[in-house]
Design brief:
- The chain has one domain (2-88, 155-234): 3-Layer(aba) Sandwich (Rossmann fold), CATH 3.40.50.300.
- It has 10 helices and 10 strands.
- The protein has helices spanning 42-49, 72-77, 95-102, 109-122, 124-128, 139-151, 169-184, 196-202, 220-224, 227-234; strands spanning 2-13, 16-27, 31-35, 57-62, 65-66, 80-83, 157-161, 188-192, 205-210, 213-219.
Length: 236
């Protein structure tokens, strides 16, 4: 069952056509990876889906509902969360304050506290550092905070942009383990990731984006063995 359907999506930056009519879908319960080189249009795709930039053409459907023109703050209330590239934590606020901001669309205080407890179970380091300013955390801890903050809204779909960027190998493995845990807990994941090998190893389906076009798609494990993909993205 398709949770997210993208049809002929186009995005222009001025006269530059960043997305050239791409179509793909994310099925409920899956991890779907978007891979491609820098400038391929991966982040633009995510920004258009979550309403951070306007689509110039095409349709975005979430749970069968057309959300093409829905602004970002409303997509959160609909059950979609975005973990942005570069983490974007509020550095002058504490870890706990950052997490509480993630739950701003939720009205049931008791339920928010229960979710907070679950976030601390999943990310024990965040509980240890809950009163610390977010800006003083390491890169890996900030990534965990960005993920925890997104999960506070209780999303059905979580969209992640380059979660492993700039992290040490130990943290990279930990972040990918957490993504799989989040998915096993019932959250569908759309993942944009430069580390194609890692992304394909945990994804169900994958799409390869090149200069605003989807050039390959299919089962993630099969794409891992595709010569074109190996040559372009998996060569050591």
């Amino acid at each position: 069952m398709a949770m997210l359907e993208i049809e002929n999506l186009e995005v222009y930056y001025g006269v530059i056509r960043a997305l050239k009519g791409i179509s793909f879908q994310v099925d409920e319960g899956d991890i779907v990876a978007l891979i491609g080189a820098n400038g391929a249009g991966k982040t633009t795709t995510l920004h258009a889906i979550t309403g951070l930039i306007p689509a110039s053409g095409g349709t975005i459907r979430f749970d069968g509902r057309d959300i093409t023109k829905v602004p970002g703050y409303r997509t959160v209330a609909m059950g979609m969360a975005h973990v942005p590239e570069g983490r974007r934590v509020f550095s002058q606020l504490s870890v706990l304050e950052n997490l509480r901001l993630g739950a701003y669309t939720r009205k049931d205080k008791a339920e928010v506290e229960t979710t907070l407890g679950k976030i601390y179970e999943r990310f024990p380091r965040l509980e240890e550092r809950k009163n610390q300013l977010a800006g003083t955390l390491s890169g890996g801890e900030q990534q965990m905070l960005a993920m925890g903050r997104a999960l506070m809204s209780h999303p059905r779909l979580i969209v992640m942009d380059e979660p492993s960027m700039g992290l040490s190998p130990i943290y990279v493995n930990e972040i990918f383990d957490i993504i799989q845990e989040i998915n096993k807990g019932g959250t569908t994941v759309l993942l944009v990731e430069q580390n194609a090998k890692k992304a394909l190893s945990i994804a169900d389906k994958a799409y390869v984006l090149e200069t605003g076009n989807i050039v390959l798609s299919g089962d993630a494990k099969e794409l891992m063995n595709n010569d074109q993909v190996k040559k372009a993205y998996l060569s050591e």
